[in-house]
Give the backbone structure.
Amino acid sequence: MARIQCLKFKLFIRIIIPLLSVFAAAKIQAQVKFGPTPTKEQLAWHDKEFYLFMHFGPNTFTDLEWGHGSENPNVFNPTAIDCDQWVSTAKAAGAKGIIITAKHHDGFCLWPSKYSKHTVRESSWLNGKGDVLKMLSEACKKGGIEMGVYISPWDRNHPLYGTPAYNDVYINTMKELLTNYGRFFELWWDGANGEGPNGKKQQYDFTKFKDSALAYQPQLVIFSDIGPHIRWIGNERGIINATNWNLLDTVGFKRGEGAPPNDTLNIGNFNGKNWIGAEADVSIRKGWFYHQEEDSTVKSGAALFNLYLQSVGHGGNMLLNVPPNRKGLIDSLDVASLMSFKKIRDKAFKTNLFKNAIVRKTKTGMQIILAHPVAINTIQLQELIEFGQRVITFEIKAGTRKNNMKTIFTGTTIGHKRITQFPIQTVQYITLNILETKAAPLLKAPCGYLIQN
Ligand code: FUL
């Protein structure tokens, strides 16, 4: 009994006190938010980290990437659609949600929209009675996973596209989706804007789009090149710069062609006026839609893990596109790769080697003292971003004795999560020095890992 109490006491000293001191520091500064800070919805979005994108529609059956909008609706004919399989696959992969292309650029609506004549209702799939949004929203609810919608503003089918009246069509379309299928966590606005069926481009009324969407679902986090809530990262390779500010200046910029340069979107603005986190969208395959001829391009679990380190590990979120096949199922090749990705993640982050460490705050950061030397090659850092993103540059020193510490990593920005990697080191003492910061740094307890193939 006495031994157990002693162990408990030791545990208290090792884990709870250091954590308390970190959180106490956070509390003292609670009123001192620095610069732009995330809303509670943005904060919850940051914590999702990884979720799936699903591109599905006529393109799945015509092998196009950008449908023309003139496709016969009958081409859309998934023979064995099973949204429960999508959800169970997402859950097994550790993904926190699914974002579906409710309408891609071809204008085809995966639900029977009143505002279009190019929908599942016009197809012979399930005798025109099918509704993918209904199926998926029910499956997500049943499976306890969140859902989001991509609704392409660009519409190559709608006869009113290119006229002011189309803006109301788009708003009505959003309203249908946002009021009939439950709550969504995210709304995705694609920046692509080409010509409609009459050869005209649309002048989008994004202010009205945003106000309407948030009036229907105020908790929505809206994605586009420039937010309002989360931003594109300037590439579709899934890679966010190691320097990543959750801040962006949007005045004078537009979505699509008028967006900030891609490298700005990839890094954010050091002194940006708005909190707009980075979302890395990337496909598991070459294209966004399923094409059998691209089966050989499915990324391996290891390749996905590498992208995870460069998106989530660089303080952003990973939106991985896993497009259903012509049956209406996540293809077995993609499932296998997702499961391998999950296994690699689980193995990598299973043992936090700093779990029982003594963590002390120092003037310039933190000192971590382990009970005995361990081999590590990864340290995960996190700022308490609810108080603002503060750290500009940092270094990590480590060694087996207090007096033989060497620098093992220098980096820029931490934000929601920074997974630092370096060659394997045997260490017992680790020091994190914050070299430059905008305000007193507020960090969660760091974690240490040995990640091996
Ligand atoms: C792009 C689109 O044009 C692609 O088809 C795809 O939907 C991708 C996620 O965004 O801008």
User: Anything to note?
Assistant: Confidence is low (pLDDT under 50) at residues 1-28. Residues 391 and 437 are 4 Å apart (CA to CA). The chain has two domains: 2-32+352-449, 40-348. The pocket of beta-L-fucopyranose is lined by residues 65, 190-192, 281, 288 (CB under 6 Å).
